[in-house]
Amino acid sequence: MNIEELINQKYSSFSESDKAVWKYIATHRIESEKMSINDMAQGCFVSRTAVMRFSQKLGFRGFAEFKVYLKMENQTSEISDQIDQVCNTYQNVADSIRKKDCDKMFEVMDSARHIYICGEGMVQTSIQKEFKRIFSCAGCILYDVPNGEELFNLLPQITENDFCILISVTGENEKILQVAKQLLIRGAPVLSITKKRENTLAHLCDYRLYIESSNAVETPIHWIYESTTSYFILIDILFLKYIEYHNRKDRKDENRAADRSTLRADESQ
Questions:
Q1: How far apart are CA 223 and CA 14, in angstroms?
Q2: Which segment, 100-109, 136-145, 165-174, 222-231, is predicted with the most confidence on average?
Q3: pLDDT tens across 95-106, in order?
Q4: 127 with 232: CB under 8 angstroms?
Q5: Is the dihedral of CA 258, 260, 263, 265 positive or negative?
Q6: Burial letters for 141-152: b for 16+ Cβ neighbours within 10 Å, e otherwise?
Q7: What is the mean pLDDT of residues 147-155?
Q8: Cβ contacts of 84 within 8 Å, gap of 6 or more
């Protein structure tokens, strides 16, 4: 049972002091879990005894036990809020890429002599591999360049007939920015994939895809975790849009061929 449910059960028996204590805690939940009983009494303008009675009315042995319960509930609430935020982030990424017109970019990709994909770091490498894997299902071959340094070595071979995909979480990786500037000089079309924020890399590229970032959370072993699933959602929906683009293109080609056939038949009569 959460604290609000306990309060609802006991509220009819609350004194004015009890109500004052609860009003303060309800509006200062995080601060309350760290306060001493004396600090709480001062904050509520009640006696130390009144704070103790309030805790006992809820079924706790004292204020210290009440604070432990409050802290546990605050942590559960915080995780729940983070889960909601992450789910909303996934939905926003899906909606954004679903509505984006990518036909021109797909046209350039299909006409490219080579498609190179590059990023710096462990997260970026996993995104590259997924991009390469899923697009290979449609016969679209991507050359996976493990890091910016290797792409520097490839620059003399890259022309305006190639297509490059640069992945940077922040869009401010110095090596990737240097590569983007060189590709700009060489006239090669470039797609950037970054977080949805103002960043230098996006400004340097012809095409831009963004993901929304979610809050980083601390794990039980004190590592910092930030979900990367948004990138994979983006790639998955982008691939489906690529398939849809080809289906539409094939239908148009079939319709043109049928029209030409009909025209030739009419002319021969």
A1: 43
A2: 100-109
A3: 989 999 999 999
A4: yes
A5: negative
A6: ebeebebbeebe
A7: 79
A8: none
* Structure tokens belonging to residue 268: 């021969």
Could you give the 3-state DSSP secondary structure of residue 60?
coil
The tokens of 84 are what? 């909601």
Distance CA 101, CA 124 (A): 24
DSSP 199: -
Structure tokens at 65: 């036990």
Q: CA separation (Å) from 227 to 202, 232, 237, 238?
A: 22, 10, 18, 19
Q: Using alpha carbons only, what angle is made at residue 32 by residues 31 and 37, rounded to the nearest 5 degrees? A: 130
pLDDT at residue 81, as a whole number: 62
Mean pLDDT, residues 221-243 taken together? 86
Q: Is 101 exposed, middle or buried (0-12, 13-18, 19+ CB in 10 A)?
A: exposed
Spell out the alpha helix ranges (H) of the chain.
3-10, 16-27, 29-32, 37-44, 48-57, 63-99, 103-111, 122-136, 148-154, 174-186, 200-204, 229-268
C-alpha–C-alpha distance, residues 227 and 218, integer Å: 12
Mean pLDDT along residues 171-182: 91
pLDDT band at 266 (very low <50, low <70, confident <90, very high): low
